[in-house]
Design brief:
With about 350 residues, the protein is an alpha/beta fold. The chain contains 13 helices and 12 strands. Helices cover about 40% and strands about 15% of the residues.
Amino acid sequence: MAPTDFRDIDVIAPSFKKRYSGVTSTVIRLVPIQARDIAITATSPLLPDDVPNVPPKSLVTMSRSGPSGARVWHARRNVEMVAGLALKYILGKRLRLLFTSAAQRRHTGFTRWLIRRMDHVIATSGKSASYLEREATVIRHGVDCDLFQPVADKPALRAALDLPTDGLLVGCFGRIRHQKGNDLFIQAMIEVCKTRPDVRALMMGRATADNAEFLQDLKDKVTAAGLEDQILFRDEVAVEDVPRHFQALDLYVAPQRWEGFGLTPLEAMACGAPAVATKVGAFEELVVPGETGTLCEIEDIDKITADIAECLSDANRLAQMSKNSRAHVVKNFRLEGEAAAIIAIYRDLLNR
């Protein structure tokens, strides 16, 4: 779907990281929808075929101006802010520089210097905005509610995914490392599964080489507890298979110690799985305690465990929370709303 000529493009969304990440996910989700309403392309080493994309090497030779004059360069990482500045001030490309910040910590001096040189800044949550030393527009991430939606026949789906078809399934998805709290999830599920033989847990995601020992330690703990048949581990799956795994769940756990935004609870709730989440990232702005899940303090393993057990203890209450979760995301966090809000920023920058 790559455009034939950069001269037709008003907005460029770079994603320079080759490995799949949260930023990559954001570009994959948003750009195809935004392309319906504005002339936008990604520029990335590798993206799915349905995402408009131009190889990064083409940036050097692209025309100085776009169809509207200056183009918008929408960076989401430091390296992309640097590239935008280089294209503008060294190669003379006419660009309006936009940055989206998800970080919830004080930025380094270099990052603050880069951010000051942006024409506009978006924050993905109110908490993220509070760490910026300049005005920002808060636009929270959204979910494709057509892709992430409850499935009618959950046992059949689980069978197709080679997952247990009976009982309750609790999930924790994403990169496997200490900051994601995978050890807290496993510790909590060991306690829950000891007394609930009808409960299964699925931890799914990729562990980099430096986290291989961390992952193996978690597997060893499950083996020592004799719960290998109840607590399952699965490697990262293809992007197109991720929604089906969320649809297979009855409850989702997001036990992170740190998070920029954190999209997985939204994806789970869109599929009808309430979320037990810690108070990091944007989770406090996403989960409605008692209605769509619960919120816990960071590393409060006792409450995480108790909340999981309580959510699973009452089938009628869990079913109601499932309905609430889906309705909450559809009403407040549709991907189309995020895309439209960002496009409004693009148009403002193009008209300056």
